[in-house]
Structure formats: structure tokens, C-alpha cells
Amino acid sequence: MNVYELNSTEKYHKETFSLEAMVTMATSIDSVINLNDGTAMPMFGLGTAWTDECSQAVSYAIEQGYRMIDTAQRYGNEEDVGKGIAMSGIDRKNLFIVTKQWQNGHDACIQGLQRSLVRLDMDYIDLFLIHGPREGRNVATYKAMFELKKQGLVRSVGVSNFNIHHLEGLRNAGLPTPSVNQIELHPWLQPREIIDYCKKHNITVMGYSPLVKSKMLKNQQICDLAKTYNKTTAQILIRWSVQHGYITIPKSSKPNRIKENMQVFDWTLTEDDMDFLVRII
Questions:
Q1: Are the beta carbons of 246 and 207 closer than 8 angstroms?
Q2: Catalytic residues (predicted)?
Q3: Contact 111, 82 (CB under 8 A)
Q4: Are 128 and 154 in contact (CB under 8 A)?
Q5: What element of type H or E holds 198?
Q6: Which of 4, 75, 197, 208 is catalytic?
Q7: Is residue 234 within 8 Å of residue 260, measured between CB atoms?
Q8: DSSP-assigned letter for residue 213
Q9: Residue 246 annotated to the active site
Q10: For residue 5, what is the enclosing H or E element?
Q11: Per residue in 36-54, pLDDT tens?
């Protein structure tokens, strides 16, 4: 996997990026990673799970420079995400849209994607994920996703919340390796075995809930770090994900926090503080 800087005039679905621009982690909101299928994906985006005022949040985030938006059928907000994108005035081709299939099964997946496209008011999805494993249906769902990719309705296919045995099931079925595995990821949940497996098999790790669903923003240890760096507690947690090289999608519906959350690229946590956060649990 290679990570690159993408300037504002480049489009994710057309450009070939220079190896001279390669970095090991996101260094700006424009950083992208080359997935195992060749798709270029932004390393930073907006999460929208159960977000209030979703359309306004999406539009504002895009205006601020966010180029990746993560949604899902389960969230019930795909239509609002689509409206927010339209409100932003940015060409859809300059955005990277992630959504997830909730109901597993071949026909359910085909129909689900069609409904998602209608709700989002789009012709294609950049990254389509199985939202979660369902024993006995993962393979059928995954095969359907590649049928959709062949039709040009999906650019890249991945999974979410998959453990090693679920990924092994796809591999043993002779199916292509997922481009992404989206998992909950923050200092209090660091599933080392699945992260190592994904790295070994060239599956990009995408972390959701980097802010721990706001449950730890008042944690005294994180507050102490925030004071040391003169940052918000949210910025400390987001920087931890960025500095590990994970794709991350902090969510907020508040304009000031959406803007603050992206201000994590011009400073670093020390090695000692990164180690402290690794051991915080």
C-alpha cells in the first residue's frame, strides 16, 4: 500500500500518483492511500453514524476540505448525505463515498446497492463494505459486490467488523482480498491480531469511532495530554489514529468540531506519548 498527497485539482478515479510523493501516514487532509486494487482513497474523512443535522454537517465538512464521507444503509442517513454533497457544490467525482451493505445475501446486496444509489443520488459508490459478518452469507454477499463492481457501480470492495476467521473464509473460497477492513479503533480498543493480519495480507485498516463515541473525552489522562499539547482531547485521539497510519473518520455535526478535527496534521505526539496511549488500557 502506498500513500500519496493529492492536490485539489486531481480526481481520485483518474490520476496516477508519483512515488516521489509517497509518505508513511497522512500528512494532510489531502493524503490518499493506494488500496490493493489500485483505488486511491483519502486517509481522512467524515463519519456520519447517527449524526444530527447530517446534510449540513456533510456540506460544511466538504467546504472545509474533507473529501471522504462514510455512511451506511443502517444509519438511515444516505439521503441526507446525498443532499449534503449536493449542497456543497463540489463535483461528485472529486469525492470518495463509502457506504455499507446491512442485510447479507446475494440478492439483498444487489438490491441494497441499488437503493443506496437512489438515496445518495449517485451513479456509483467508491467503496462498498459488508457492514458485518453473517455466518453462511458472507461469501454470497461478497460475490454480489464484485458483480456490482464489474458493472461499474462500485469502485472498490471491502468489509467491516470482520475478524480473522471471517477473512479466512473469503480467502478459502478463492475470492479477491478485501481492499479495506473497517473496524472500531482507538486507544481503548486495539485489536492487534486483526490489524497484523490485515497488514500481512495488504488489507487497509480503516478505524471508526476514533473518539470512542465521546465517552473518553473527559478522561483525565487524555485531558492532561491535551493541556500539554494545547489541543482538544478529540485532537489527541484523532492524532493517535493518524500517527499509526490508519484511515480515520471522526464524526461531528458541529461546525467548530468538524474544523478542529481536521487540524491534526501539523504537529505530532512524542514516541513516549504514543506508547502511553498504546498502554492506556
A1: yes
A2: 75
A3: no
A4: yes
A5: helix 192-200
A6: 75
A7: yes
A8: G
A9: no
A10: strand 2-5
A11: 999 999 999 999 998 889 9
Quick check: helix, strand or coil at residue 208? strand
Dihedral sign, Cα of residue 27, residue 178, residue 11, residue 14: positive
How many angstroms separate the Cα of 24 from the Cα of each of 19, 121, 253, 261?
12, 35, 30, 20
Three-state secondary structure call for residue 171:
helix
Specify the 3-state DSSP secondary structure of 111: helix
Q: Alpha helices of 65-105 — where are they, by DSSP H? A: 78-88
Backbone angles phi, psi at 186, to 5 degrees: -170, 175
244 annotated to bind ligand: no
pLDDT confidence of residue 281: 67
The per-residue pLDDT for range 58-91, each reduced to its tens digit, is: 999 999 999 999 999 999 999 999 999 999 999 9
Which three three-digit cell numbers place residue 165?
476467521
Residues facing 158 on adjacent strands? 129
Q: Which domains does the chain possess?
A: 2-278 (3.20.20.100)
Q: What is the DSSP string of 8-75?
A: TT--TTTPPPPGGG-BSS--STTEEEE-TTS-EEESB-EE-TT-TTHHHHHHHHHHHT--EEE--GGG
In the chain, how long is the greatest CA-to-CA distance?
Answer: 53
> What cell numbers appear for 220 in the block?
483525565
Give SS3 for 274. helix
Strand partners, 47: 70, 251
C-alpha cell at 7: 492536490
